[in-house]
Protein backbone atom coordinates (compact mmCIF):
# COMPACT_ATOMS: atom_id res chain seq x y z
CA UNK A 1 0.00 0.00 0.00
CA UNK A 2 1.09 3.57 -0.66
CA UNK A 3 1.74 6.04 2.16
CA UNK A 4 -1.22 8.26 1.16
CA UNK A 5 -3.67 5.38 1.43
CA UNK A 6 -2.06 4.22 4.66
CA UNK A 7 -2.50 7.71 6.17
CA UNK A 8 -6.21 7.65 5.35
CA UNK A 9 -6.58 4.32 7.13
CA UNK A 10 -4.37 5.32 10.05
CA UNK A 11 -6.53 8.34 10.81
CA UNK A 12 -9.78 6.35 10.67
CA UNK A 13 -10.13 2.57 10.77
CA UNK A 14 -6.73 1.77 12.28
CA UNK A 15 -7.02 4.41 15.00
CA UNK A 16 -10.56 3.27 15.83
CA UNK A 17 -9.64 -0.44 15.73
CA UNK A 18 -12.23 -0.99 13.02
CA UNK A 19 -9.78 -2.84 10.82
CA UNK A 20 -8.73 -6.47 10.89
CA UNK A 21 -7.59 -9.28 8.68
CA UNK A 22 -5.35 -8.68 5.72
CA UNK A 23 -5.64 -4.87 5.78
CA UNK A 24 -4.35 -4.76 9.34
CA UNK A 25 -1.44 -7.04 8.48
CA UNK A 26 -0.57 -4.90 5.43
CA UNK A 27 -0.67 -1.69 7.48
CA UNK A 28 1.53 -3.15 10.19
CA UNK A 29 4.00 -4.44 7.62
CA UNK A 30 4.12 -0.97 6.06
CA UNK A 31 4.57 0.71 9.45
CA UNK A 32 7.45 -1.61 10.24
CA UNK A 33 9.41 -0.36 7.23
CA UNK A 34 8.18 3.25 6.78
CA UNK A 35 9.37 5.73 9.46
CA UNK A 36 7.22 8.58 8.04
CA UNK A 37 3.98 6.62 8.42
CA UNK A 38 5.15 5.28 11.79
CA UNK A 39 5.58 8.87 13.02
CA UNK A 40 2.21 9.81 11.54
CA UNK A 41 0.53 6.91 13.37
CA UNK A 42 2.19 7.85 16.66
CA UNK A 43 1.24 11.54 16.25
CA UNK A 44 -2.32 10.69 15.35
CA UNK A 45 -2.69 8.57 18.45
CA UNK A 46 -1.03 11.13 20.71
CA UNK A 47 -2.76 14.23 19.34
CA UNK A 48 -6.17 12.95 18.37
CA UNK A 49 -6.98 9.91 20.42
CA UNK A 50 -5.36 10.50 23.79
CA UNK A 51 -7.14 13.81 24.64
CA UNK A 52 -10.43 11.94 24.48
CA UNK A 53 -9.30 8.90 26.50
CA UNK A 54 -11.14 8.47 29.82
CA UNK A 55 -12.81 11.79 29.37
CA UNK A 56 -14.62 13.12 32.41
CA UNK A 57 -18.35 12.55 32.20
CA UNK A 58 -20.70 14.89 34.02
CA UNK A 59 -23.88 13.88 35.80
CA UNK A 60 -26.99 15.60 34.54
CA UNK A 61 -28.46 18.00 37.13
CA UNK A 62 -31.46 16.65 39.03
CA UNK A 63 -33.68 19.60 38.16
CA UNK A 64 -33.96 18.36 34.58
CA UNK A 65 -36.07 15.38 35.71
CA UNK A 66 -38.31 17.69 37.76
CA UNK A 67 -38.85 19.89 34.71
CA UNK A 68 -39.57 16.91 32.47
CA UNK A 69 -41.95 15.39 35.04
CA UNK A 70 -43.75 18.72 35.56
CA UNK A 71 -44.16 19.16 31.80
CA UNK A 72 -45.63 15.65 31.45
CA UNK A 73 -48.00 16.08 34.41
CA UNK A 74 -49.23 19.49 33.23
CA UNK A 75 -49.79 18.05 29.76
CA UNK A 76 -51.85 15.22 31.27
CA UNK A 77 -53.91 17.71 33.27
CA UNK A 78 -54.57 19.74 30.16
CA UNK A 79 -55.80 16.60 28.49
CA UNK A 80 -58.31 16.04 31.29
CA UNK A 81 -60.21 19.08 30.03
CA UNK A 82 -62.66 17.53 27.49
CA UNK A 83 -62.43 20.46 25.05
CA UNK A 84 -58.65 20.51 25.09
CA UNK A 85 -58.59 16.73 24.93
CA UNK A 86 -60.87 16.78 21.86
CA UNK A 87 -58.55 19.18 20.03
CA UNK A 88 -55.46 17.25 21.13
CA UNK A 89 -57.03 14.04 19.82
CA UNK A 90 -58.00 15.77 16.61
CA UNK A 91 -54.46 17.02 16.28
CA UNK A 92 -53.20 13.50 16.90
CA UNK A 93 -55.63 12.04 14.38
CA UNK A 94 -54.51 14.35 11.63
CA UNK A 95 -50.90 14.29 12.69
CA UNK A 96 -48.70 14.65 9.65
CA UNK A 97 -45.12 13.54 10.28
CA UNK A 98 -43.68 15.33 7.22
CA UNK A 99 -45.97 18.26 6.42
CA UNK A 100 -43.77 19.70 3.66
CA UNK A 101 -43.73 16.39 1.81
CA UNK A 102 -47.49 15.97 2.18
CA UNK A 103 -48.10 19.56 1.03
CA UNK A 104 -45.92 19.08 -2.07
CA UNK A 105 -47.65 15.76 -2.81
CA UNK A 106 -51.10 17.37 -2.59
CA UNK A 107 -50.07 20.26 -4.85
CA UNK A 108 -48.54 17.83 -7.38
CA UNK A 109 -51.69 15.68 -7.30
CA UNK A 110 -53.92 18.73 -7.83
CA UNK A 111 -51.75 19.86 -10.74
CA UNK A 112 -51.91 16.43 -12.36
CA UNK A 113 -55.70 16.26 -11.90
CA UNK A 114 -56.02 19.79 -13.31
CA UNK A 115 -53.89 19.03 -16.35
CA UNK A 116 -55.72 15.76 -17.08
CA UNK A 117 -59.13 17.43 -16.68
CA UNK A 118 -58.11 20.29 -18.91
CA UNK A 119 -56.77 17.94 -21.58
CA UNK A 120 -59.95 15.88 -21.49
CA UNK A 121 -62.14 18.97 -21.74
CA UNK A 122 -59.99 20.35 -24.57
CA UNK A 123 -60.12 17.08 -26.50
CA UNK A 124 -63.90 16.80 -26.05
CA UNK A 125 -64.34 20.38 -27.19
CA UNK A 126 -62.04 19.81 -30.17
CA UNK A 127 -63.88 16.62 -31.12
CA UNK A 128 -67.25 18.34 -30.84
CA UNK A 129 -66.07 21.25 -32.97
CA UNK A 130 -64.50 18.96 -35.49
CA UNK A 131 -67.67 16.91 -35.87
CA UNK A 132 -69.74 20.07 -36.18
CA UNK A 133 -67.42 21.45 -38.85
CA UNK A 134 -67.55 18.21 -40.78
CA UNK A 135 -71.35 18.15 -40.61
CA UNK A 136 -71.54 21.74 -41.78
CA UNK A 137 -69.08 20.99 -44.56
CA UNK A 138 -70.97 17.96 -45.73
CA UNK A 139 -74.29 19.79 -45.46
CA UNK A 140 -73.10 22.69 -47.57
CA UNK A 141 -73.05 21.04 -51.01
CA UNK A 142 -76.46 19.35 -50.38
CA UNK A 143 -78.16 22.66 -49.69
CA UNK A 144 -76.61 24.16 -52.80
CA UNK A 145 -76.33 20.99 -54.87
CA UNK A 146 -76.73 22.85 -58.16
CA UNK A 147 -74.20 25.44 -57.36
CA UNK A 148 -71.24 23.09 -57.30
CA UNK A 149 -67.90 24.23 -56.07
CA UNK A 150 -67.32 26.78 -58.80
CA UNK A 151 -64.01 25.27 -59.85
CA UNK A 152 -62.48 25.29 -63.33
CA UNK A 153 -62.70 21.49 -63.51
CA UNK A 154 -66.43 21.64 -62.87
CA UNK A 155 -66.90 24.29 -65.53
CA UNK A 156 -64.95 22.24 -68.06
CA UNK A 157 -66.78 18.93 -67.52
CA UNK A 158 -70.27 20.09 -66.63
CA UNK B 1 -27.20 1.80 29.04
CA UNK B 2 -29.81 -0.08 27.01
CA UNK B 3 -29.24 -3.36 28.89
CA UNK B 4 -31.15 -2.22 31.96
CA UNK B 5 -34.21 -1.13 30.01
CA UNK B 6 -36.33 -4.20 29.47
CA UNK B 7 -39.15 -4.48 26.96
CA UNK B 8 -41.52 -4.69 29.93
CA UNK B 9 -40.42 -1.24 31.12
CA UNK B 10 -40.71 0.13 27.59
CA UNK B 11 -44.21 -1.31 27.18
CA UNK B 12 -45.35 0.18 30.49
CA UNK B 13 -43.85 3.54 29.56
CA UNK B 14 -45.57 3.36 26.19
CA UNK B 15 -48.85 2.97 28.08
CA UNK B 16 -48.06 6.16 29.99
CA UNK B 17 -46.63 4.76 33.23
CA UNK B 18 -44.55 7.59 34.68
CA UNK B 19 -42.51 5.35 37.00
CA UNK B 20 -41.33 3.27 34.04
CA UNK B 21 -40.54 6.42 32.15
CA UNK B 22 -38.47 7.59 35.12
CA UNK B 23 -36.45 4.35 34.95
CA UNK B 24 -35.78 5.07 31.27
CA UNK B 25 -34.85 8.64 32.14
CA UNK B 26 -32.45 7.62 34.94
CA UNK B 27 -30.78 5.05 32.69
CA UNK B 28 -30.25 7.36 29.73
CA UNK B 29 -29.97 10.86 31.16
CA UNK B 30 -26.22 10.96 31.66
CA UNK B 31 -25.27 9.87 28.19
CA UNK B 32 -27.91 12.16 26.66
CA UNK B 33 -26.58 15.06 28.71
CA UNK B 34 -22.94 14.32 27.87
CA UNK B 35 -23.57 13.93 24.15
CA UNK B 36 -25.55 17.17 24.12
CA UNK B 37 -22.84 18.91 26.11
CA UNK B 38 -20.08 17.78 23.75
CA UNK B 39 -22.03 18.79 20.66
CA UNK B 40 -23.04 22.17 22.08
CA UNK B 41 -19.94 22.82 24.25
CA UNK B 42 -22.15 24.56 26.79
CA UNK B 43 -23.70 23.13 29.96
CA UNK B 44 -26.79 25.37 30.05
CA UNK B 45 -27.61 24.52 26.45
CA UNK B 46 -27.02 20.84 27.19
CA UNK B 47 -29.54 21.03 30.06
CA UNK B 48 -32.15 22.57 27.76
CA UNK B 49 -31.52 19.96 25.10
CA UNK B 50 -31.63 17.07 27.61
CA UNK B 51 -35.04 18.24 28.76
CA UNK B 52 -36.22 18.53 25.15
CA UNK B 53 -34.86 15.06 24.31
CA UNK B 54 -36.82 13.38 27.12
CA UNK B 55 -40.03 15.19 26.27
CA UNK B 56 -39.51 14.01 22.70
CA UNK B 57 -38.82 10.47 23.90
CA UNK B 58 -42.01 10.59 25.99
CA UNK B 59 -44.13 11.78 23.06
CA UNK B 60 -42.59 9.46 20.48
CA UNK B 61 -42.33 6.39 22.68
CA UNK B 62 -45.65 4.98 21.46
CA UNK B 63 -44.24 4.86 17.94
CA UNK B 64 -41.04 3.10 19.01
CA UNK B 65 -40.75 -0.46 17.69
CA UNK B 66 -39.46 -2.80 20.37
CA UNK B 67 -37.33 -4.78 17.92
CA UNK B 68 -35.22 -1.66 17.20
CA UNK B 69 -32.28 -0.61 19.33
CA UNK B 70 -33.51 1.77 22.01
CA UNK B 71 -29.99 3.10 22.56
CA UNK B 72 -29.59 4.03 18.89
CA UNK B 73 -33.05 5.59 18.88
CA UNK B 74 -32.27 7.80 21.89
CA UNK B 75 -28.87 8.73 20.44
CA UNK B 76 -30.60 9.78 17.20
CA UNK B 77 -33.12 11.97 19.05
CA UNK B 78 -30.31 13.51 21.11
CA UNK B 79 -28.13 14.28 18.11
CA UNK B 80 -31.05 15.76 16.15
CA UNK B 81 -32.21 17.89 19.07
CA UNK B 82 -28.67 19.13 19.76
CA UNK B 83 -27.97 20.02 16.13
CA UNK B 84 -31.35 21.75 15.73
CA UNK B 85 -30.81 23.65 18.97
CA UNK B 86 -27.37 24.72 17.81
CA UNK B 87 -28.76 25.98 14.51
CA UNK B 88 -31.52 27.86 16.31
CA UNK B 89 -29.05 29.44 18.73
CA UNK B 90 -26.69 30.35 15.89
CA UNK B 91 -29.56 32.16 14.11
CA UNK B 92 -30.52 33.99 17.30
CA UNK B 93 -26.93 34.99 17.99
CA UNK B 94 -26.59 36.22 14.43
CA UNK B 95 -29.76 38.32 14.80
CA UNK B 96 -28.57 39.71 18.10
CA UNK B 97 -25.19 40.58 16.60
CA UNK B 98 -26.84 42.63 13.89
CA UNK B 99 -28.66 44.73 16.47
CA UNK B 100 -25.89 44.97 19.02
CA UNK B 101 -22.79 46.62 17.60
CA UNK B 102 -20.95 46.41 20.89
CA UNK B 103 -21.10 42.66 21.01
CA UNK B 104 -17.88 41.37 19.47
CA UNK B 105 -17.18 37.87 18.20
CA UNK B 106 -16.61 35.24 20.83
CA UNK B 107 -12.89 35.04 20.08
CA UNK B 108 -11.85 33.39 23.28
CA UNK B 109 -14.42 30.69 22.75
CA UNK B 110 -13.95 30.06 19.06
CA UNK B 111 -10.19 30.15 18.96
CA UNK B 112 -8.95 26.64 19.61
CA UNK B 113 -5.35 27.74 19.84
CA UNK B 114 -5.95 29.86 22.92
CA UNK B 115 -7.69 27.08 24.73
CA UNK B 116 -5.08 24.50 23.83
CA UNK B 117 -2.35 26.79 25.17
CA UNK B 118 -4.09 26.81 28.51
CA UNK B 119 -3.19 23.11 28.80
CA UNK B 120 -6.58 22.42 30.20
CA UNK B 121 -7.78 19.12 28.86
CA UNK B 122 -11.44 20.02 29.02
CA UNK B 123 -10.79 23.23 27.14
CA UNK B 124 -8.63 21.42 24.65
CA UNK B 125 -11.45 19.03 23.84
CA UNK B 126 -14.04 21.80 23.59
CA UNK B 127 -11.68 23.87 21.44
CA UNK B 128 -11.05 20.95 19.11
CA UNK B 129 -14.75 20.21 18.84
CA UNK B 130 -15.58 23.84 18.10
CA UNK B 131 -13.51 23.92 14.91
CA UNK B 132 -15.62 21.14 13.43
CA UNK B 133 -18.92 21.48 11.64
CA UNK B 134 -21.95 19.90 13.37
CA UNK B 135 -21.79 16.66 11.34
CA UNK B 136 -18.09 16.14 11.97
CA UNK B 137 -18.44 17.06 15.64
CA UNK B 138 -21.29 14.60 16.10
CA UNK B 139 -19.26 11.82 14.49
CA UNK B 140 -16.28 12.57 16.76
CA UNK B 141 -18.46 12.73 19.89
CA UNK B 142 -20.15 9.43 19.09
CA UNK B 143 -16.86 7.71 18.24
CA UNK B 144 -14.25 9.21 20.56
CA UNK B 145 -16.37 10.02 23.58
CA UNK B 146 -19.28 7.58 23.43
CA UNK B 147 -17.20 4.80 21.86
CA UNK B 148 -19.79 3.78 19.28
CA UNK B 149 -18.68 1.58 16.39
CA UNK B 150 -18.86 2.85 12.81
CA UNK B 151 -21.96 0.69 12.28
CA UNK B 152 -23.70 2.17 15.35
CA UNK B 153 -22.83 5.72 14.30
CA UNK B 154 -24.14 5.04 10.81
CA UNK B 155 -27.41 3.68 12.25
CA UNK B 156 -27.76 6.61 14.63
CA UNK B 157 -27.18 9.25 11.97
CA UNK B 158 -28.93 7.28 9.22
CA UNK B 159 -25.95 7.55 6.90
CA UNK B 160 -23.61 4.97 5.33
CA UNK B 161 -20.46 3.69 7.03
CA UNK B 162 -18.41 5.40 4.32
CA UNK B 163 -20.02 8.74 5.23
CA UNK B 164 -19.10 8.14 8.88
CA UNK B 165 -15.54 7.29 7.85
CA UNK B 166 -15.30 10.39 5.67
CA UNK B 167 -16.66 12.70 8.40
CA UNK B 168 -14.21 11.27 10.93
CA UNK B 169 -11.33 11.60 8.48
CA UNK B 170 -12.07 15.25 7.66
CA UNK B 171 -12.66 16.09 11.32
CA UNK B 172 -9.38 14.51 12.37
CA UNK B 173 -7.44 16.15 9.58
CA UNK B 174 -8.72 19.53 10.79
CA UNK B 175 -7.94 18.72 14.42
CA UNK B 176 -4.50 17.42 13.53
CA UNK B 177 -3.58 20.65 11.72
CA UNK B 178 -4.62 22.72 14.74
CA UNK B 179 -2.86 20.48 17.24
CA UNK B 180 0.34 20.54 15.20
CA UNK B 181 0.22 24.32 14.84
CA UNK B 182 -0.24 24.76 18.57
CA UNK B 183 2.61 22.42 19.38
CA UNK B 184 4.82 24.23 16.84
CA UNK B 185 3.96 27.60 18.45
CA UNK B 186 4.73 26.25 21.89
CA UNK B 187 8.22 25.11 20.85
Quick tags:
heterodimer; A: 158 residues; mainly alpha; 3 domains; 7 helices; 76% helix; B: 187 residues; Rna Polymerase Sigma Factor, Chain: A; Arc Repressor Mutant, subunit A; 78% helix; globular
- Please give the domain count of chain B: 2
How many structural domains of chain A? Answer: 3
Task: Quote the beta fraction of chain B.
Answer: under 5%
Low-confidence stretches of chain B: 103-110, 113-118
Main interface: chain pair and counts:
A-B, 30 and 38 residues
Query: In terms of quaternary structure, what is this?
Result: heterodimer
Calculate Rg of chain A over CA atoms.
Answer: 41 Å
Note the main sheet of chain A: none
Helix content of chain A: over 70%
Order of helices and strands of chain A: HHHHHHH
The rounded Rg of chain B comes to: 18 Å
Largest sheet of chain B: none
**Which segments of chain A are poorly predicted (pLDDT under 50) over 5 or more consecutive residues?**
none
Q: From the helix content, strand content and strand pairing of chain B, which structural class follows?
A: mainly alpha
Q: What spatial form of chain A do the alpha-carbon principal axes imply?
A: flat
Shape of chain B: globular
**CATH homologous superfamily caption of the largest domain in chain B:** RNA polymerase sigma factor, region 2, helix turn helix motif
Could you characterize what this model shows?
- The complex is a heterodimer of chains A (158) and B (187).
- In chain A, 76% of the residues lie in helices and 0% in strands.
- With 158 residues, chain A is mainly alpha-helical.
- Chain A folds into 3 domains: 3-52, no CATH class; 63-93, no CATH class; 99-158.
- The longest helix of chain A has 45 residues, at 99-143.
- The N and C termini of chain A lie far apart (99 Å).
- Chain B folds into 2 domains: 1-104, Orthogonal Bundle (Rna Polymerase Sigma Factor, Chain: A); 105-187, Winged helix-like DNA-binding domain superfamily/Winged helix DNA-binding domain (Arc Repressor Mutant, subunit A, Orthogonal Bundle).
- Chain B is built from 10 helices and no strands.
- Chain B has helices at residues 7-14, 18-40, 43-60, 70-99, 107-110, 112-117, 121-130, 134-145, 150-157, 161-186.
Amino acid sequence: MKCKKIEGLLITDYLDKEIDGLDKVLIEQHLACCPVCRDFAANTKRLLSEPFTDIERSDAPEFIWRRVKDAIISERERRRNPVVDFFERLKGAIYIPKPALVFISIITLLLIVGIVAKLQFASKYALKNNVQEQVEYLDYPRENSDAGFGTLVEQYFL
Amino acid sequence: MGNEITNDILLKAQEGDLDSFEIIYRTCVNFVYNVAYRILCNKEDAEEVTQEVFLNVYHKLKGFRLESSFKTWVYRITVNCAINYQKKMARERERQKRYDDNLGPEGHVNDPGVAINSENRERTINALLRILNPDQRTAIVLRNIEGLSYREIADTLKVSINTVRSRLKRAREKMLVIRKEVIKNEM
